[in-house]
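Fill in residues.
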């Protein structure tokens, strides 16, 4: 009798998940796509005006990059807060609160009069924006399983990549007509539109009977489970090191391409758009490849691509300056990061549907925290050398590979 009850319960759960998948079909791409673009828009739209921002606010290249670091730290911290909250109160309410705060913070960025004020406003902007990022990941875990989950994360990567194509290209052309403040006015308007769209059409994917309780005590128990799971720790740390490499590239690229190679903002935008296209294509391919070769194989391929990109960039920085090779290195770094993300996310979250928000928030926090730590390193020797960016990318990619080999590669496959 007990066996029959358990079987019935499992069947009911599967039916509910299938129902949620069918109901999500019409709105999932639009709603979760809007959440996913917050990261690329917040980070990439204003990249072409980082140099002019530094001049306007009497700052340095490193202090301008600190505005990126502040946003990354906020994105990391915001996910830690929003993830457990979404497990307890559902996905919709924390998301709406985060979007409102994001919109207000974006307006404050536009009005900042000093680097210090802008850094503070960017931190709050990131703190609120992290809500959308973690809930986009968590909703996928609510709805999908197995290879469908990996395909979902690959689609999210593609959407991010497409947004990253549009953001710097648009930013490069807008830089010829707008000051850096105008970019944050645009982000404010986007915040208003997305908040309205979510309020009107986003249903909660976590029903009340699946929500957690117990407050901080329960969260501590969940964290204890996660830190004892070698696969979760390995996938999280390895992918976070690749995020450090990726964000070092993001922070260094404007100064390398514009300061060293003399590209105009509009030309920089086109080059960066090529990199983002590679990011999107690689992310889509990663999802397909994972179905045939498994998550771990795709994970390893992405790491190898990033190492190749970092090594190529180091060659151009120290021995063979070349715009073509530098762009090639950037394409490899972007593509490698996109290949790593879907399988590493699946491996980290596959065993935790019952507290996906907490597991996803820790994953997101460590990725953005690593990126925040790495971004200032790109400009540590000034805007006229690519060596710090290259060394940071290569070292982080090699570190991610070491962690992968130690904690992820040798584990018995559980989701592939």
């Amino acid at each position: 009798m007990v066996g029959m009850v358990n079987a019935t319960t499992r069947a009911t759960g599967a039916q509910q998940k299938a129902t949620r998948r069918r109901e999500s079909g019409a709105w999932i791409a639009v709603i979760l796509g809007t959440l996913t673009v917050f990261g690329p828009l917040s980070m990439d739209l204003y990249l072409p005006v980082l140099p002019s921002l530094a001049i306007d606010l009497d700052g340095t290249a490193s202090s301008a990059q600190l505005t990126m670091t502040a946003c990354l730290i906020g994105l990391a911290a915001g996910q830690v807060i929003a993830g457990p909250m979404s497990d307890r109160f559902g996905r919709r309410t924390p998301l709406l609160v985060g979007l409102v705060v994001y919109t207000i913070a974006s307006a404050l960025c536009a009005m900042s009069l000093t680097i210090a004020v802008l850094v503070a406003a960017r931190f709050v902007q990131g703190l609120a924006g992290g809500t959308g990022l973690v809930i986009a990941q968590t909703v996928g875990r609510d709805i999908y399983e197995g290879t469908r989950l990996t395909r979902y994360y690959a689609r999210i990567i593609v959407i991010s990549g497409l947004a990253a194509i549009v953001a710097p290209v648009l930013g490069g052309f807008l830089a010829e007509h707008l000051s850096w403040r105008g970019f944050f006015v645009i982000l404010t308007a986007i915040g208003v539109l997305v908040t309205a769209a979510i309020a009107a059409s986003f249903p909660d994917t976590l029903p009340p009977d699946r929500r957690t309780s117990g407050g901080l005590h329960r969260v501590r128990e969940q964290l204890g489970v996660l830190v004892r799971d070698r696969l979760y720790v390995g996938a999280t740390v390895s992918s976070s090191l690749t995020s450090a490499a990726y964000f070092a590239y993001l922070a260094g690229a404007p100064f390398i391409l514009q300061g060293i190679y003399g590209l105009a903002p509009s030309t920089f935008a086109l080059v960066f758009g090529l990199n983002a296209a590679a990011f999107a294509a690689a992310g889509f391919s990663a999802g397909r490849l994972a179905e045939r070769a498994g998550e771990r194989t795709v994970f390893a391929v992405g790491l190898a691509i990033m190492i190749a990109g970092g090594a190529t960039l180091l060659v151009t920085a120290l021995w063979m300056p070349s715009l073509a090779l530098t762009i090639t290195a950037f394409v490899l770094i972007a593509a490698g990061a996109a290949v790593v993300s879907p399988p590493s996310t699946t491996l980290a979250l596959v065993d935790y549907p019952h507290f996906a928000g907490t597991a996803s928030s820790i994953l997101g926090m460590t990725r953005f925290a690593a990126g925040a730590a790495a971004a200032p390193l790109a400009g540590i020797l000034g805007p006229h050398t690519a060596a710090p960016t290259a060394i940071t990318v290569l070292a982080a990619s090699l570190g991610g590979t070491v962690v992968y080999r130690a904690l992820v590669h040798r584990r018995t496959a559980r989701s592939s």
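The chain has a mean pLDDT of 78.
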